[in-house]
Amino acid sequence: MPTKTLRIPTADGHADAFAAFPDRGERHPGVLMYADGFGIRPVLREMARELAGHGYYVLVPNLFYRHGPAPVVELPEHIGEEARPAIFAQLMPLIEAHTTVRVLSDAEAYLGFLTAQPEVGAGPVAVTGYCIGGLLAMRTAAAHPGQVAAVAAFHGPVGADGPGLFSELSAQVHLGHAEGDMTPEALGELNQALDAAGADYTSEIYPGTIHGFTMSDTDAFSASGLQHHWDRLRPLLERTLGNS
Question: Is 96 helix (H, G, I), strand (E, B) or coil?
Fold first, then answer.
């Protein structure tokens, strides 16, 4: 499967990025994939290739390109619990510096770049994200209602901006929450806010999961949780982007 390392022009420079797409000489629906806070690394490339294998052009940008190319923070091959405090001590200033203004400026650049690629077909795109990337995916979808047909967020702080964000969504939404992040009561409140906003959504707790469950290079990984995520994400994309 073809892959590329790319540089996306932005208002603040160039974001390095990874792309994967089918080797069929055709145009494919575009998917913007936001990584978790650990950023682009082998597991994200593997996930992008997996999704691309189902007929999509998948673009994964380096969220923290202003601080250098990915990986911005040196990561072990396996991110165990003992390594997390030191890694997060380095990551938190980068996350805090990634303001909503920067997120939306970057999102415009990423979507413009994605839709201009010769392998990407005309029509709407989808956005998916993990952990902090889930919140970025929601912000991107809300800011580009005519362009983003589907948005999915997994173990992300999707309610952090308040319910006003939900009212700006026109995309179909799937939210996959970790059991360790979301109580049934909190899920009910979140879903009530989505209902009040008129969102077209599914939102559920994935049983037996903790924060970060999709990432196979962490102690949080759940094979069943990752499969559940694919079982929700792929039909969402098929419905909204017209691909199967």
Answer: helix
pLDDT in tens, 220-232: 999 999 999 999 9
Nearest Cα residue to 132 out of 113, 110, 156: 156
The length of the chain in residues reads 244
What strands lie across the sheet with 3-10, from one edge to the other? 3-10, 13-20, 57-61, 30-34, 125-130, 148-154, 172-178, 200-206
Instruction: Tell the residue number behind the tokens 């102690």, with chain if given.
Output: 219
- Enter the DSSP assignment of 121: P
**HSE-up of 63 (CA within 13 Å, CB side)?**
32
Sequence-ordered strand ranges (E) for the chain:
3-10, 13-20, 30-34, 57-61, 125-130, 148-154, 172-178, 200-206
Q: How far is the C-alpha of 51 from the C-alpha of 59, rounded, in Å?
A: 11
Of 89, 206, 219, nearest in space to 152 by CA:
206
pLDDT of residue 1: 84
**Is there a contact between 168 and 140 (Cβ–Cβ < 8 Å)?**
no
Residues 204, 101, 140, 59, Cα dihedral to 10°: -110
pTM, to two decimals = 0.97
Which amino acid belongs to residue 83?
A: A
Letter for the amino acid at 239? R
